[in-house]
Amino acid sequence: MTFFRHHYSVAFSMHQPNQTLSARDAFYRHVALTSDAPMGIEIDLAEGPFFYDTTGRRYTDFISGIAVSTLGHRHPAVVSALRAQLDRHLHVMVYGEFIQRPQSDFARLLTSVLPESLDRIYFVNSGTEANEGALKLAKKHTGRTKLIAFRNSYHGDTHGALSVTGRDVYRDPYLPLLPDVYFFDFNDDAVLEAVDSQTAAVILEPIQGEGGIIPSQKPWLQKLRARCTETGACLIFDEIQSGFGRTGKLFAFEHYGVVPDILCMAKAMGGGMPVGGFAASSRLFEAFMYDPPLNHVTTFGGHPMSCAAGHAALSFTLEHRLWERAPSIEKQIREGLDVPGVVEIRGMGAMLGLVLPDFDTTRAVVERCLEHGLLLGWTLHSNTLVRLAPPLIIEDEVLQEAIGITRESIAFVEAAKSSAVK
Fold it and tell me: Considering just the CA atoms, what is the radius of gyration of the chain in Å?
């Protein structure tokens, strides 16, 4: 122990942090940033549908951490599960070697609410990792390399997931990506002929998220399912954003009467903790066991804390049938924002896209909402679309307040535009 203590103290003295830096200064100086203009809200506390900055100002989270906090922030059931697991153990061994009760319990509960063909789950750390694993599983199982994806899709930022993401703004800086990937228009029958005996997988979001909250058309998705079955290609559904009740069903594929070969999930899966997973049949997962063994592994996937949190979150969701809350949220938003200046509201449940007339209007509305304590989901790459994804536990009073702020902000910006024209 003396050896480790000695060397730790030396290392610490060599890299003594500047204790005078504030959290804000340290953020801008030492945290790797993803843009030159981050929002920069300094978080002090988050609870339920709200978060608070260090000045005590309250914000209503109308995007749920990008569809993560379906149960709101720090849900008591999740916090209780985390505290209990903390007293038992944290990481003990790489995934798949030791029997860890949080993993086993969560896998048993999750597969119990999935179709019989999705009877096994591989836990990972995130949505993009779930998609990576799904692509590898499809290629290993089929022995094929051809992948089919869709324009305007988004599946993550790692190289494999990015290779099947159909948005050039994300892809172009990192070309070349994986070969043998082909893109087609979403909801277009032209893809059916392209699915052939060389196709390992077709990957899609049943409801495109980043691409504009575009739902699949039911007849098209059913034809695509039939074509994949006919050719032996794996059908992969990316439900990372749409899963766990957000669309009015536990998973969006339930709206369509179509079951994928591989189901990818994350975001709301962990109740605020980092976890993802991809589910498939035991037959498909045999591909990861042989030739060679351990050909797909993860160190922290299925971390016991994340699985304990995920089990608590899913248990609460099932007990209270939270997906049944989503249609009411949708109805109130559609009715409350049926106002001049709104081009369209699309999507389903609590996964909606608010379309505004132009980029400048969208930016002004989002900024004004934030000034009034309402966080909406918008990025520069979305142009005129604002994603609305409130937590499913949001009370009507809070929901109506958020709708009112949005409606007032749209009216204010529209009036300002009219005055400028005059």
Answer: 23
